[in-house]
């Protein structure tokens, strides 16, 4: 599956990460702190990489 990465999509993902991600990972998924940290860091790294690619195109 291929997804087109747009600025709007990255903005949507950033909004989720900054407003709801911790609550979802903690309350809904009941992840431990290290697991939450890993998931969040992975998401942030992926968003940063996508933003760099989008900026360079």
Folded structure, characterized:
The protein is mostly helical. About 80% of the residues lie in helices and about 0% in strands. Helix 1 packs antiparallel against helix 3. The longest helix is centred in the last third of the chain and has 24 residues, at about 35-55. The relative contact order is 0.16.
Strand and helix map with partners:
Elements: H1 7-19, H2 21-28, H3 33-56
Helix pairs in contact: 1-3
Protein traits:
57 residues, mainly alpha, 3 helices
Assembly level? single chain
Low-confidence stretches: none
Helix fraction, binned, reads over 70%
Task: List the total number of helices.
Answer: 3
Query: What fraction strand?
Result: under 5%
Order of helices and strands: HHH
Please provide a brief summary of the model.
The chain is an all-alpha fold. It has three helices and no strands. The chain is elongated, with a radius of gyration of 13 Å.
């Amino acid at each position: 599956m291929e997804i087109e990465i747009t600025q709007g999509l990255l903005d949507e993902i950033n909004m989720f990460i900054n407003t709801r991600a911790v609550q979802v990972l903690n309350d809904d998924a009941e992840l431990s702190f290290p697991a939450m940290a890993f998931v969040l860091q992975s998401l942030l790294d992926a968003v940063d990489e996508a933003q760099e690619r989008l900026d360079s195109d």
